[in-house]
Amino acid sequence: MSQSLTKSATADAPPPGTSPGARGLQGHPWLTLLTVAVGVMMVALDGTIVAIANPVIQADLDAAPSEIQWVTSGYLLALAVFLITAGKIGDRFGHKNTFLVGAVGFAVTSAAIGFAGNIQTVIAFRVLQGLFGALLQPAALGLLRGAFPAEKLNMAIGIWGGVIGASTAAGPIVGGLLVEHVNWESVFFINIPVGLIALALGLWILRDVRAENAAKSFDVPGIVLLSVAMFALVFGIIKAPEWGWGDVSTLVFLGGAVVLMTAFAFWQRVAREPLIPLGLFRSLPLSAGTLLMVLMAFSFFGAIFFVTFYLQNVHGMTPVQAGVHLLPMTGMMIIGSPVAGIAIGKLGPRIPIVAGMLITTTAMFGMSTLDAGSGNGVMALWFVLMGLGISPVMVGATEVIVGNAPLELSGVAGGLQQSAMQVGGSLGTAVLGALMAARVTDTLPGKWAEAGLPPVDPAQAEGLNQAAQLGIAPPAPAGTPQQAVDAMAGAVHDSFVSGMSLAFAVASVVAFAAALLGLLTRRGTTDAGPAVHI
Q1: For 445-494, how does the pLDDT look when each residue is reduced to its tens digit (9 = 90+)?
Q2: 3-state secondary structure of 26
Q3: Which residues of 265-396 form beta strands (DSSP E)?
Q4: Counting beta carbons within 10 angstroms of the beta carbon of residue 469, is it exposed (0 to 12), middle (13 to 18) or buried (19 or more)?
Q5: Across-strand partners of 141?
Q6: What's the rounded Cα separation, in Å, for the pair 22 and 487?
Q7: Comparing C-alpha atoms, which of 107, 517, 29, 113 is closest to residue 298?
Q8: How far is Cα of residue 11 from the mean position of the Cα atoms in its chain?
Q9: DSSP state of 280
Q10: How many other C-beta atoms can be found within 10 angstroms of the C-beta atom of residue 3?
Q11: Taking the alpha carbons of 354, 358, 363, 364 in that order, is the dihedral positive or negative?
């Protein structure tokens, strides 16, 4: 992998024609970090804040369950499909310009969603919002890579990760408050002032970052092949629980993804300026970091998906209360990410990553022991360990991937890191969801009988089973004795917890495999010094 980078300007050498005041601020590393953090905060916030609004959106717009699912799935699908291409756009046209377009587009599409009058329009603009969000994230990493020297890059990525953790943590709480006290549209309107702040800071603070030896043209066939392959892969994963993993439609999408990925790899070998030079993966640490990110996201996002249902449907919490109960985990991510950045700067990424994944493995195993009556103290313990363990992994894996790529491919590397997280999270949610559904289906009849409840009518059995997979106890007919109502709720909750325990147990095994993979990582070896600033 080439390590030759052109450095025709330094962070202290501003473009000609700028005022002394501008020279002191434009391109300033820590102000650059502040600016990109504000922009990426919108994307992170939207990952959780909209989930709280979905039930109200469904009721207000009279949306079908399958339609409301695409309010989230359409956004995530657009992110996953476009991230690597978005990184290439930043490498080609400059990360500053890409970041500003992403920030403005994200704010504008957020406004359009708030003014939408039907669910189809909401879904369409959520897809566009995902595309603009994809522009923001790799550009942010590219700007950080160009602004910070190698010895401070870890700390910068750690603080950046802390901002993402804080935004993710704030989503359920802020979303719950806005939905309860304003309306669901305000969940999207909140992005408008944030986007304007990101735009103003970006125009004032950011100095464009691009390498002189970056590709001058686009690998259009490569973009098409990769985009369609990513769409087929993520769409197939999203729909597999509904269709069935052995269904023809699922196999067509997943098999098509494999064929298209193979064709993409072949094309990259012969393309004049490939989208992702395959030589990038000759770096063992970069390849290990990418796979590590997939496994981490599989275990973390796949398993944590069930926690909100556990808190709200089993423990009867409101969305805001559930968000507050998750603060021990997200709070540790906020604190742990900058601390992890400092530790990685001193020790290198290997030890913090392996230690973090072992702590995460312990937390996942601990979560598998929870039951319907587990107290807040026990839950908080495992949540704290989860946040503490995942922080060095997110920061370290990001540094390993971006730091081991040449500067002219920093945007592509940033897109690769984010794509690995999206694919891993989607795969984990689908696979662990399927395992959980199977366990609930096997367990529920026995729990129902043990509670002394009469057999369920076959016509209602499927509805009861689907509700139990979310931890939702069925409404009892009028006049049902309270003892019977409690017995039904107990059977459903015990079945749900049994499925959740299996999901966390499998996630702990995947997390342990990720810890072993962490042994192959090492600090970035390419020069992280400043690039050309235009």
Answers
A1: 888 888 888 777 777 777 787 778 777 787 777 777 888 888 888 888 88
A2: coil
A3: none
A4: buried
A5: none
A6: 69
A7: 517
A8: 31
A9: G
A10: 9
A11: positive
Helix (H) or strand (E) holding 42: helix 29-60
Task: Report d(CA 488, CA 372) in Å as an integer.
Answer: 13
Burial of 177 (0-12, 13-18, 19+ CB in 10 A): middle
Bridge partners of 532? Answer: 210
Taking alpha carbons only, the member of 217, 204, 286 closest to residue 38 is 204
Residues 6+ apart with CB under 8 A from 286: 280, 400, 401, 404, 405, 413
Q: Which residue has the tokens 């500067």?
A: 407
Other CB atoms within a 10 A radius of the CB of residue 151 amount to 10
Q: Which pairs with CB-CB distance under 8 Å and at least 24 residues apart come from 468-471? A: 468/440, 468/444, 468/492, 468/495, 468/496, 469/436, 469/437, 469/440, 469/496, 469/499, 470/309, 470/313, 470/496, 471/309, 471/310, 471/312, 471/313, 471/314, 471/496, 471/497
Tokens 């923001």 found at: 136
411-457 pLDDT, tens digit each: 677 777 777 877 787 778 778 877 888 888 888 888 888 888 877 77
Neighbour-count burial of 321, counting CB atoms closer than 10 A to its CB (0-12 exposed, 13-18 middle, 19+ buried): middle
Listed in sequence order, the residues at least 6 apart from 284 whose beta carbon sits closer than 8 Å to its beta carbon are 520
Nearest residue to 495 (alpha-carbon basis) of 451, 442, 457, 432: 442
CA distance 522 to 351: 9
pTM surpassing 0.70? yes
Q: How far apart are CA 275 and CA 92, in angstroms?
A: 11
Does residue 45 contact residue 171 with C-beta atoms inside 8 Å?
yes
DSSP count for the chain of H helices, then E strands: 18, 0
Name the nearest CA neighbour of 165 among 433, 420, 389: 389
Q: Which residues, listed in sequence order, are joined to residue 210 by a DSSP beta bridge?
A: 532
Q: What percent of the chain has pLDDT over 70?
A: 87
Q: Give the integer Cα–Cα distance in Å for 428 and 211.
A: 36
With 0-12 CB in 10 A as exposed, 13-18 as middle and 19+ as buried, what is 456?
Answer: middle
